[in-house]
Design goal:
It holds the Pfam family SRP_SPB. The chain is about 55% helix and about 10% strand. By secondary structure, it is an alpha/beta fold.
Length: about 375
């Protein structure tokens, strides 16, 4: 689960503050030392941690906090506000072109999940009643074009390809022309990655950028690589002036260093996060909701959105009526279980519930086989 280690350490630090009626400067200093260690252990960039702690400390020893009836809560509120600022304040939307199609260029190192992420974004756009086109401009990695075509078939989105003998620049240009021809709203270009950053890769990406003038240059980075992800983001940004970042594998990143550092280091927002293996596992990155999750405050808005996506409202009202009139059957129970399963792992859902101490859940794991057995 994302930020698990950081979240439990921060909650532990604040628990000590809550036991005190009035806070002294020493109390705040001790708490900030623990917060600093927690952030460094989470692989957050050192300079980012230093600036964050200085800002929070400065605000926390002010009169406003010291004279507050609940000073500990006030300190937590300040930490929450500064975490939100650190990650970019508000969600960052895609840069939409005034004249369709909107051109999105995907860049990143090999193995970050770039090709899969193009499919996830295409499915996300399709769910929002947009017409995307995928363009296979990775002519180096074996089976890269085939992978994109398979993804396109799975989500019923067209894939434009000219094979692996044409230059990526020409493929990108032809892809944009094709998008105009078929009336696509968005064209997503999957470019080649490398195992490491090299001059040849950057030159090719610069040439593609110059040829198609994209509305968004999205860098895909693996959240689990922590500081390495931040370094990659810095180098790509210096060469290409990226417009946003997509973090993959955020669900498996128990530390969270990349998510907390990238915005501060590059000045570029995280726009989306991959939170699972399924093509539907893509979330808009909300700094305020992420900060709430880190501090164990839950995330009710994301929970509501998940429920709206997975649960049939009309069916839910019918179930409610049946429960109230004692007409609820085992078939109805089965239907409810199936809709709940669509929302994802129960452990992750519980962590979004405000007021629920996720630390007390421990290593709660619901055996999916038990649910399957109940369904049978």
């Amino acid at each position: 689960m994302a930020f698990e280690g950081l979240s439990s350490k921060l909650q532990e630090a604040f628990k000590k503050l809550k036991g005190k009626g009035k806070l002294t400067e020493k109390d705040v200093k001790d708490a900030m030392r623990e917060v600093k260690l927690a952030l460094l252990e989470a692989d957050v960039n050192y300079k980012v941690v230093k600036d964050f702690i200085n800002t929070v400390s400065e605000r926390s020893v002010g009169q406003e906090v010291m004279e507050s009836l609940t000073p500990a809560q006030h300190v937590i509120k300040i930490v929450n506000e500064e975490l939100v600022t650190l990650m970019g304040k508000t969600e960052s939307k895609l840069n939409v072109s005034s004249m369709p199609p909107t051109i999105i260029m995907f860049v990143g190192l090999q193995g970050a999940g770039k090709t899969t992420m193009t499919g996830k974004l295409a499915l996300y756009l399709k769910k929002h009643n947009k017409k995307p086109l995928l363009v296979a401009a990775d002519v180096y990695r074996p089976a890269a074009i085939k992978q994109l075509q398979v993804l396109g078939n799975q989500i019923d989105v067209p894939v434009f390809s000219l094979g692996d003998k044409v230059s990526p620049v020409d493929i990108a240009k032809a892809g944009v022309e094709n998008a105009k021809k078929i009336g696509a709203d968005y064209v997503i270009i999957d470019t080649a990655g490398r195992l490491h950053i090299d001059e040849q890769l950057m030159d090719e990406l610069k040439n593609i950028k110059e040829a198609i003038n994209p509305n968004d240059i999205m860098l895909v980075v693996d959240a689990m690589t922590g500081q390495d992800a931040v370094n990659v983001a810095e180098q790509f940004n210096a060469s290409l002036d990226i417009t946003g970042v997509i973090l993959t594998k955020l669900d498996g990143d128990t530390r969270g260093g990349a998510a907390l550092s990238i915005r501060a280091v590059t000045g570029k927002p995280i726009k989306f996060a991959g939170v699972g293996e399924k093509l539907s596992d893509l979330e808009v990155f909300h700094p305020d909701r992420m900060a709430s999750r880190i501090l164990g405050m839950g995330d009710i808005l994301s929970l509501i959105e998940k429920a709206q996506e997975s649960i049939d409202e009309k069916q839910a009202l019918e179930m409610q009526k049946k429960l109230m009139t004692q007409q609820f059957t085992l078939d109805d129970f089965l239907s409810q279980m199936q809709q709940m399963k669509k929302m994802g792992p129960l452990k992750d859902i519980l962590k979004m519930v405000p007021g629920l101490d996720s630390a007390k859940l421990g290593d709660l794991e619901v055996d999916e086989r038990e649910i399957a057995r109940t369904e049978q």
